[in-house]
Amino acid sequence: MAEPSLARLSALFFGFLLLLATYSWIVDKGMVPIPKAAGTEYRYNVQNKPIHMDRINPISIEQPEGPSFLVEDGHLVKWANWVFHVKADHRAGMIISQATVRDSETEKPNSRILIFTNVERAGEPRSVMYKGFPSELFVPYMDPGELWYYKSYLDAGEIGLGPAAMPLVLLNDCPRNAYYIDGVFASPDGKAIVQPNMICLFERYAGDVSWRHSEILIPSADIRESRPKVTLVARMATSVGNYDYTFDWEFQTDGLIRVTVAASGMLMVKGTPYENVDDLGDKQDESGPLISENVTGVVHDHLITFHLDMDIDGPMNNSFDKVHPEKQRVPTGKSPRKSYLKVKKYVAKTEKDAQSRLGNPAGYRIIPGGNAVSLLDHDDPPQIRGAFSNNQIWVTRYNRSEQFAGGVLVYQSHGDDTLQVWSDRDRSIENNDIVLWYTLGFHHIPCQEDYPVMPTVAASFELKPANFFESNPVIGVAPIFEKDLPVCRPFASS
Ligand SMILES: [Cu+2]
């Protein structure tokens, strides 16, 4: 594994210099004791901190017949019923594009293609997503004091998630069965920077079930059907200064895409005269909790807005329905029940070309996961620049210049080129080429366990087929039998 190149380091250094040049005056607000810094070493080979737990034996996934995916031309990934393009990107870190899923019920004559020597892929590829990537990453700190008020970062636009991505750590960032892809970027002097092992691809089996049913009402039949859930993960990790973010795009054979952001790394901390919360008396430290002697963990948000250019069965004629489950009251005397849940569609203007058998418009649902919306006032300067986090979900008409939710140029921006501004134009989005924007995030209230390096905290959302397939698309998948896995056996039984 190669060390980071000199050109890459100079690119990062140049970026940090720009940040420093923005705030180049000195403010002295008095002295606080220098923290002891005891127990802050986190590197395994230099720390001396025995852990008191039973050892976990090394673990890995065995694939006796090798991986089930192909990578063509360095970036085109073919796995199970999915085909998509993955690439490293200077600003977004990793971009997934032209994702199609093969629908075995749309097979036409001669549509089978060979991807391995003995495996055929049946059915027609159907477009799901043209392009998806983290468009901006907003981290406002919640200390309005003179030394901290300006600390609100747009990490993708100001730093770039690509150059800040160090090579992944083999066997730890990704499992042994992972395949690695390098990133290639341009340095400020125009030379190429190669970032080795920046993205990994691997099949994940976490012991979960894809679908199952046992027939308890017909005991003589002994029907017990179950299928293991195996997924494909595309992962990159970036270290934007003190913080680390891992981005996963996980593809399931049932058509679902799960996007996960996992945050780890080091807190941005502030000195304080206090060593113990008792020293505070009736006061509360306004910046955040005391996490070590003389060290405060300043409260902040991590808000990551994804650009999701969904092209369900093609770029045009896409619409967005708001679906609300609502409680309904049963009229008195009509039923022993008093209430029930009814699903109501609020923007049901969709007439798609591709209709399913039952007449439902073919679609994908967004299933929110990690919800966090900025609590800053909309007229607060950081929030004007980070206005894309005013809403959890946005839908805009496709415009090729609207890729980055905080604007193309974010250094010292005033919020005049954000997703909020574009959305305020109020263009028609019905039966059109539209882009879905979703913000996930964390309100981070630090605690002692986050210090010196915080355990990973993850949040995710899902893009789930809804009436896209005619029925369960993985009903025909074969189960796994004992003879299929000749390599791995539990140690006790070998
Ligand atoms: Cu945080």
CATH class bucket of the largest domain: Mainly Beta
**Annotated CATH architecture of the largest domain:** Distorted Sandwich
Q: In angstroms, what separates the terminal alpha carbons?
A: 36 Å
Count of structural domains: 2
State Rg. Answer: 26 Å
| Major β-sheet annotation | 9 strands, antiparallel
Class by alpha and beta content: mainly beta
Each distinct ligand: copper (II) ion
This entry's quaternary arrangement is single chain
Helix content: under 10%
CATH fold type of the largest domain = Beta-galactosidase, Chain A, domain 5
Annotation field: number of helices: 4
CATH superfamily of the largest domain: Copper amine oxidase, catalytic domain
Report the portion of residues in β strands. Answer: 35-45%
Q: Based on DSSP secondary structure assignment, what is the total number of beta strands?
A: 23
The H/E string reads: HEEEEEEEEHEEEEEEEEEEEEHEHEE
Enzyme class: oxidoreductase
Domain Copper amine oxidase catalytic: 60-474
Protein name: Amine oxidase
Organism: Brassica oleracea var. oleracea
